[in-house]
Design brief:
5 helices; 10 strands
Length: 167
């Protein structure tokens, strides 16, 4: 009788696991972002990997702001970091952004909702290229409060982001 219950339990939960993995398939294109660490939703070898199309399907938000890196106000479009963290089931208090050149920046997760931080993919309507801080750039709405116009937040704004590690 116990064996039958075990088989029934396995058969009951198996479709849920299959549906769950179908909700978050592996990237069809080249991954531009790998999220790892304390996350509950993965799609490739214990990580959450995204190509550009997958990130865009999450919905892009716009932040228009003055930055220390560009002369005039700039319009950035990207995924809300809070939404991305929610999607992967982030369980940590910090995220370490790792750039293509191995630059590392640690960002408190609470910043994502407190300041509406985005992971920008576009600048002024164009996809950001590696030679110009792309493909992904952590952007705060610096103009929204004087607090954000400081080295603390500028150093958290990693560009050429390739990985996010939730800790």
């Amino acid at each position: 009788m116990n064996i039958i219950r075990l088989i029934l339990c396995v058969l009951f939960f198996l479709p849920l696991e299959t549906a769950y993995s179908q909700d978050f398939p592996a990237p069809a294109g080249k991954p531009i972002l790998i999220v790892s660490g304390k996350i509950t939703k993965t799609n490739v070898n214990g990580t959450a990997q995204f190509d550009r199309e997958m990130l865009e399907k999450m919905g892009l938000v716009t932040v228009e702001t003055k930055t220390p890196w560009y002369e005039s106000r700039t319009r950035f479009e990207g995924v809300s970091m809070a939404k991305l963290m929610d999607f992967v089931g982030a369980q940590g208090t910090t995220v370490t952004a790792v750039a293509l050149n191995d630059y590392v920046s640690t960002i408190p997760v609470k910043d994502f909702t407190a300041f509406n931080v985005i992971l920008a993919m576009k600048r002024d309507g164009e996809y950001m290229q590696v030679r110009d801080k792309g493909p992904l750039f952590v952007i705060y709405p610096y103009d929204s409060t004087p607090e954000l116009q400081s080295q603390t937040y500028y150093t958290r704004s990693a560009w050429q982001v390739a990985k996010l590690i939730v800790e």
